[in-house]
Predict the 3D structure of the following.
Amino acid sequence: MAASARQDGPVGALRLRLLLEAPVATPDGLGGATVSHETVAAVWAQVEWLSGGEHWRRGRPEQIATHRITMRWRAGVDAGQRLRDGERVFDIRAVFDPDGSRRRLVCLVQEVSP
């Protein structure tokens, strides 16, 4: 096994294609803004479920799942952005480079579904 494969994990581990999206605020003409998201990049990633639960939001219960998403290292990924897999949306809460080598980027995310 090559040294890079040992450090980075199995070659096929990053097999899910996700869209990285950044928020874009558009003035609404009334002093506020409407926030939408635009695609920044498509990335190969691995999604691992961490925990789940339920909480109330706006008078209704929502299911919350937290995940760890690992991708190849890339600059410019921040909390506040999100990752998308079709209809599934993962809000990025924290981003870190686990060993400082700029090989992998780990995002702790929250997926909310009504």
About this structure: Residues 45 and 92 are 14 Å apart (CA to CA). Residues 3-113 form a domain with the Thrombin, subunit H fold (CATH 2.40.10.270). The radius of gyration is 16 Å.
